[in-house]
Structures are given as structure tokens and as C-alpha cells.
Amino acid sequence: MSTPGPDTESIAEPVVRLRGVEQRFAGGVTALAALDLDVRPGEWLSLLGPSGCGKSTALRLIAGLARPTAGSVERRLQGTHGVGGIGGVGDIGFVFQEPTLMPWATVEGNVALPLQILGTPRAEIRTRVGELIERVGLAGFERARPRELSGGMKMRVSIARALAAAPRLLLLDEPFAALDEITRARLNDDLLALWQAQGLTVVYVTHSVWESVYLSTRIAILSSRPGRVVGEVKVDAPAPRGADFRDSTAYLHLCRQVSEMLAEAMR
Ligand code: ADP
Ligand code: MG
Fold first, then answer.
1. Which of 19, 160, 205, 230 has the greatest number of CB atoms lying within 10 Å of its CB?
2. Could you tell me the sign of the dihedral formed by the alpha carbons of 52, 192, 10, 219, in that order?
């Protein structure tokens, strides 16, 4: 059994560093205030907080899809494609709550899109897209259109698309919130396996205590709006995680600890 992610937490430079971040929107809402957060290489960091506390805003800032009104966001991702982009064009892959697929394109076409934007040669796209579809468990559905797929399958396409450009950092914004519990558990396990196999760094937004403890190596608990980090919990359980972990006393204990911190954060 291996330990999740490389054991570099304390020594390696963060891949993203937020300092004193504030995000105020026109109209007067301050979504984030004084947010300090590091994303470390190889970790699975979950952002857990009440609805409306600024989790999606924080993720967009990490991705470079928005700029903070105060404070700094530094990214250190020395990849080949540069930073930014939606759905996996670049060193950051982004999975939104809605799968946001092109309805007229096939599964293959949707997964290929970021590679086409990057100008990847055709033959290479074909190979890579085939591998990705296989890896997310959609072999046989290459030619299907989004309307022919279940919610869970659409989310798998969305994940494959986000992974297409081989990002170092994968950001997911409550990706499974709309799915039934069994599908959700299966996708969680598949995503964990991908994270492990690919040496990815993951930032995962959720409001589920159970899910955050099951998936993460570290959980940052955010206060009610304006969001800032009010607590942190490390989850040391080894990978691969599964039913043994979910049924363990350690898991229950961590869930209780995180729940209490979240309740405190919402006060
Ligand atoms: P969460 O993802 O934690 O539910 P969000 O980051 O989506 O929270 O939103 C935090 C707050 O900022 C909410 O009150 C939301 O209404 C507000 N907000 C988010 N985006 C915008 C925007 N583009 N313009 C104005 N207000 C926004
Ligand atoms: Mg959100």
C-alpha cells in the first residue's frame, strides 16, 4: 500500500499560493476576505464550507479565471501549455458542477476539444482521446451524444475533457452534487484512482463532510461569507481508500471533527 500523493507537503513549494485575498463584487457582496491558502504539489485539498461562502469564487481565482480585488494569487505550474483556460486547456483542468458539454458533438468530440484548441496533431488526439475515454470508464460510448448519456456518464466525459491536456492541477467544483449516491460513490473512487495514478494535484470544492474526509489528504474549512480559512484537517489514511476506510473508526472520528469545525465556522 502506498501513501496518497508524494510526501512533499512540508518541503515542496506550493503550486498555488493565495495571500490576503479579497473578492468584492460590483453590487457590494464581499465573497472572500483575508483568504490565505496554499495548494501543495500532489495533495488532494478539499475546500469545505457553507453554501455561498465563496468556494466557487476561490476556485475561479486559483484557476486564473478571475482576479482578486485585493491580495495576491501566485501560481507555479511549470508545464508546457501555460496557465489558464477552461475545461483543461492548459496546465489547469477545471470540472464544473454542470458537465457543460457541447450537445452536438460526440463523446470523442467533446474530449478532443482542448487538444484541438492546443493544435495537437490529429493522430495524437485520436490516441490520447481513446486512452482518456477508456480511463474514465466510457469505452464503447465514443460516438454517443451527450443526450444519450446518464448524468454520471456526462460527468465522466467532463472529467476526461479536463484531463485531456494533461494538467498538473485539477480543480473540481462540486462535480457530483447532482448525482445519485451510488453513482457519486463510484465516481469518487474512480477519481481517487486517477489522482493517484497520474500524480495530480487536486482542489475539490464540496459541502459534504463525508465526501471531503473520504477523498482528501487535507481539508480547509471556510467560514460563512466572506469566506476565509478557519480550520484545517489532515487525513492521513493510506490509498487506495475504500470500504475499509469508510467503515473505520478513524473515518467516523475525522467526520465528527470536521463537522464540529464546520458548525463552528457557520456560527
Ligand atoms: P459558494 O460556491 O461557496 O456557494 P460563491 O463563490 O458562488 O459561493 O459565491 C459567494 C458569494 O458571492 C455569493 O453571495 C454569490 O451570490 C456572490 N457572487 C458570486 N459570483 C458573483 C458575481 N459574479 N457577481 C456578484 N456576486 C457574485
Ligand atoms: Mg459554488
1. 160
2. positive
